[in-house]
Amino acid sequence: MSKQFDVLVIGGGPGGYVAAIRAAQLGFSVACCEASPYADPKGEPRLGGTCLNVGCIPSKALLHTSHLFEEAAHSFAAQGISVGTPKIHVKTMVGRKNTIVNQLTSGIKGLFKKNKVTLLGGLGAFVAHTEGGWQVKVGDEIVDAKQVIIATGSSARHLPGIAVDNKLICDNVGALDIDAVPKKLAIIGAGVIGLEMGSVWRRLGADVTLLEALPEFLSVADVDVAKEAAKVFAKQGLKIELGVALGEVKALKKGVSIAYTDKDGNEQKLDADRLIVSVGRIPNTDGLNAEVVGLKLDPRGRIDVDAQCRTNLTGVWAVGDVVSGPMLAHKAMEEGVMVAELMAGQSGHCNFDTIPWVLYTSPEIAWVGKTEQQLKADGVAYKVGKIPFAANGRALGMGETTGFVKMLADAASDRILGVHIIGANASELISEAVVAMEFGAASEDLARICHAHPTLSEVVHEAALACDKRALHF
Ligand code: FAD
Ligand code: NAI
Asked: Which pLDDT tens digit goes with each residue over 295-318?
């Protein structure tokens, strides 16, 4: 006899576990299957997916520790604090990170119990369409569900000829468990992971070189932000080589040797103790038996969905990294909630125009909406309000004067089209812009809102005022 549920969620990452909880809150009987134990000592499946186990949370824990280390080494003295030369005990840093991961992943098991979501251990693979819905094999069991939400996420893309062992040559999994500060660290790909993980190890003393194929740095970000970031990261000692073409990558007895052609066409060689490969991620669709039930994929191998995350199969939905859109945990969660609410007949929605991006480097980088180069390409007339953190009293007090807030508003309607921040606490500051844009606010609306003094949020306020050329403190 098969197990029967209203809803089966395949995958227990942020897209899947949130969809499962929301569906249960709405009265469905729900099961969620997850195959991966990650680093669970008992080998039991763990919830939280990439984000909690080998992504967002562990990387931010390491970024925090390494930030404190750098502050102690380089910023304390200017404020009259002497602590001597700080030392890093990498095992403790990684152990603390693991404790946080364990706490959060087991917390989600607790949330499943509280919301009566059944956790099934094992890979979910479609078996057949039935009269009442879908039959899915989970491990050795057969599950019948009226509706299925696929939330199988993504895995690191690897490059041909570069064998990832997650010791010497790491993807995100090994990169979060490096057990000693490498003297020389090479990173292939100067994207989000490369910059965050490069920052961690550079702060702790590694000589870090990033090799990036594209000729432009951080081309997803606003052009001014990318320029400022390149300047700041270079000053910090992060070496970023753009426009490289990789040649042979050889694992040595102790380290790795990378041959490449630089942007000027010269043959180069980079030797390093460790290598991180961070060249994007690929959707996880392999184990699903998609072809058996005719589940449609798009040309990039992602599950093909409409704007409400419906697949081509009735009653089968897909959310998160396995579908199109930015591979971000909060995007996956939004989609999970939307799908659960749509299944319940509610008007769930996900506004893909107001999904914020954050890079947790120092300074942090965050944005929402259109970049200046996108507006130019779209032929939209816009105005710009740009204010440096150096003009803000709180930033001065914190010793965090690098960067700026740049607001882009429609020249005719004044509606905010994009906000781009590079500076301290950008990850938190961006929320105000997201809320404003979600409600279709104009720069004038933000300009008329009282912002606490002294706070970094005043830089956002001043940027809104600057859109109308009436900044008060710059
Ligand atoms: P996942 O989190 O990948 O979860 C999918 C789950 O499904 C996995 O646990 C997998 O084992 C399971 N699964 C796969 N196939 C099956 C199957 N057939 N049956 C059962 N289970 C299956 N995003 C942010 O927003 N902020 C950040 O700061 C951030 N930092 C990151 C740092 C790193 C190093 C990495 C790698 C990613 C980071 N991300 C960040 C991205 C974020 O982790 C992903 O966008 C998010 O985890 C996607 O959620 P998901 O539920 O779609 O997929
Ligand atoms: P990415 O797409 O951000 O960056 C990959 C980089 O590698 C690109 O710049 C690309 O041009 C480069 N590249 C590709 N092939 C190459 C090659 N052969 N040689 C040299 N360079 C090459 O992908 P990344 O950093 O792997 O991260 C994956 C995703 O995970 C991100 O896109 C993001 O969605 C998510 N993430 C989000 C974080 C956050 O929100 N703070 C943090 C980390 C990851």
From this structure: 999 999 999 999 999 999 999 999
Considering the candidates 74, 349, 453, 473, report the single residue annotated as catalytic: 453
Check if 189 has its Cβ closer than 6 Å to any atom of ligand 2.
Answer: yes
**DSSP for residue 463:** H
**How far is it, in rounded angstroms, from Cα 333 to Cα 426?**
21
Expressed in angstroms and rounded, the spacing between residue 240 Cα and the centre of ligand 2 is 14
> Within a 10 A sphere around the Cβ of 37, how many other Cβ atoms?
14
Q: Which of the ligands is closest to the CA of residue 326?
A: 2
State if residue 328 touches ligand 1 by the CB under 6 angstroms criterion.
yes
Q: What is the CA radius of gyration of the chain?
A: 24
Instruction: Please state whether the predicted TM-score (pTM) of the whole model is above 0.90.
Output: yes
Active site residue 453: yes
With both helix axes pointing from N to C terminus, report the angle between 457-467 and 426-438 in degrees, rounded to the nearest 10: 50
Closest by alpha carbon to 334, among 322, 319, 347? 319
Ordered domains of the chain (ranges, CATH) = 3-156+282-350 (3.50.50.60), 169-279 (3.50.50.60), 354-466 (3.30.390.30)
